[in-house]
Design goal:
Length: 538
């Protein structure tokens, strides 16, 4: 357990100051803050190691920023960061350390676990080298050159996102997550079983969706016409439950252990990241780890207002708690990052979707926002209309790899910058009327249509700018958001590293499957009987 005083955050002076300050600031236009402070664009920005974070379009002024920094100090955030990296049991409900950072810097691993961390990394690298050189053979004697990862949640979202980001073009690494058989069938359609390697990724090796797909993989491989016991050459398992993986039939030398102190949604750096390693190779994978390691060092050492994860965490807390924003839209202007919002949904909402503090008392107000989004410029033609003329305040994260040449790339970047600017500035009635009048419309039509062209603006956004989507940059980006999650969880006083709510849903599903849960409530009982009828079981 963490032996640090954790006062209720709402009892702290800084929290109360922020509540009072937000009442006056919440209705002010962001563009007005630029008029009051001509240097704002530079002073509300932060640059570090090739990343440029512009948060000047957030509805935060200097007094709010200072009060947020005070809140970080009053909640002992610096001590919390030290506890995280020292291996303290920050996952206090389950009595576990949280040390996914040790997977990108093995020196942080507990001394007794360091040999296994090093050995697992060496085995992963050897497997990747054999795979990429065509030396990894299947049961029929053909080289294995195609990968299908079977996993769900953290065993799917992280590696899937990273492979899409870094393995450009139609790759040979595929992912199956859904228990719906169609997901598996569509993924393997057109693949050659003689050349396909399956990775079964499950920390517990008891995840229903993953094991269902693993059994489907065995059945699909059966068409090779070789004995079932020979099919183990087509499987690798990544799990903390080594005995369960062996019982399933995975050869011991094909099981890569996952340390207990690595949570699923923080596990892309571990053997769960094997699909990425196979896709991009050991050198690029090392660069991915190096980017995360650099962010770790920055997070541990930079002062509060010069610390990227801390600053993003503070701004996000300000939006959610003090300005009442309920969502966070993540808008990566890069096709390679199209799955990054989905990855962040689990990282943020499963981590900080909590309602009680460490002592079991309820939190004050909301915790994690609802995270959503999509790739620009696609979202501009789908949901950006709500940002412009909807009734909600929606904080936005624009993620913009700005490097590269050519009109298409420049158009992508121009759109990102224009969206952030337009959503902040908006369009007032006078401007809308002038626009309509310039079209030659009569005065009556101008008056009728003007309200429909008004855009209130004042949508707060942060823009993260960097050169290109490289393995190193992706490592920085993922670690940045990981640490942001920790910062916010610490400030709320909640445990970001358990997920007991998810377990309730799994338990209910198991009860229904065994016939023990159909009478839980009248609605579920009726639905269960309807399902049985549709399936011809009654």
């Amino acid at each position: 357990m963490i032996d640090l005083p954790r006062p209720a955050p709402e009892s702290l002076p800084a929290w109360q100051h922020l509540l009072a300050h937000a009442r006056g600031l919440s209705t002010r236009p962001i563009i007005g803050l630029f008029r009051e402070d001509p240097l704002r664009a530079g002073t509300f920005a932060l640059e570090w190691d090739g990343l440029y974070l512009d948060y000047s379009k957030q509805l935060v002024d200097a007094p709010a920023r200072q009060a947020l920094a005070d809140l970080a100090r009053e909640t002992l955030l610096a001590e919390g960061i030290k506890a995280l990296f020292s291996g303290a049991l920050v996952n206090h409900t389950e009595g576990r350390a949280v040390l996914h950072m040790a997977l990108r810097d093995p020196a942080l691993a507990p001394p007794g676990d360091r040999p296994e961390v090093d050995q697992t990394r060496a085995r992963m690298t050897a497997l990747a080298e054999d795979f990429r050189a065509g030396r990894l053979m299947g049961a029929a004697g053909h080289p294995l050159d195609t990968v299908v990862n079977l996993g769900i949640g953290g065993s799917d979202l992280g590696p899937r996102m990273a492979v899409e980001a870094l393995a450009a073009g139609p790759g040979k690494v595929h992912f199956v997550a859904n228990i719906d058989a169609r997901d598996f069938q569509e993924t393997v359609a057109g693949l050659d079983p003689a050349r396909t390697l399956f990775i079964i990724s499950s920390k517990s090796f008891g995840t229903a969706e993953t094991l269902s797909n693993a059994r489907a993989a065995r059945q699909w491989l059966g068409q090779l016409g070789v004995p079932e016991e020979a099919l183990d050459t087509h499987f690798v398992a990544v799990s903390n439950a080594v005995a369960a993986a062996r019982h399933f039939g995975i050869a011991p030398e094909r099981i890569l252990p996952l340390p207990e102190w690595v949570g699923g949604r923080f596990s892309v750096w571990s053997a769960i990241g094997l699909p990425l390693l196979l896709a991009i190779g050991p050198t690029a994978f090392d660069q991915f780890l190096a980017g995360g390691r650099a962010m770790d060092q920055h997070f541990r050492s930079a002062p509060i207002l010069e610390n990227l994860p801390v600053l993003m965490g503070l701004v996000g807390l300000w939006n959610t708690v003090f300005l009442g924003a309920e969502t966070l839209a993540v808008l990566p202007y890069a096709h390679g990052l199209r799955s990054f919002p989905a990855y962040l949904q689990q990282l943020e909402m499963e981590s900080n979707g909590k309602r009680v503090r460490a002592d079991g008392s309820p939190v004050a107000g909301h915790t994690a926002p609802i995270v959503w989004g999509g790739a620009g410029t696609i979202g501009q033609h789908a949901f950006h209309q709500l940002f412009y003329q909807g009734t909600r305040r929606v904080p936005l994260d624009f993620i913009v790899p700005a490097g590269g040449a050519g009109p298409a790339q420049q158009g992508l970047v121009d759109n990102a910058l224009a969206q952030a600017a337009a959503l902040m500035q908006g369009r007032d009635a006078a401007t809308a009327a002038a626009l309509l009048a310039a079209r030659g419309l009569p005065a009556t039509e101008v008056a009728r249509l003007t309200p429909h062209l008004v855009c209130p603006g004042n949508q707060p956004s942060t823009t993260l700018l960097f050169d290109a989507l490289t393995p190193y940059r992706l490592g920085q980006l993922v670690a940045l958001y990981e640490h942001k999650v920790f910062v916010q969880g610490w400030l709320w006083g909640i445990n970001s590293f358990d997920q007991y709510g998810v377990e309730l849903g799994k338990e209910m599903a198991r009860n229904l499957a065994s016939g023990q849960g159909g009478e839980a409530d009248p609605s579920t009982a009726i639905l269960a009987r309807r399902v049985a009828a549709l399936q011809g079981r009654t």
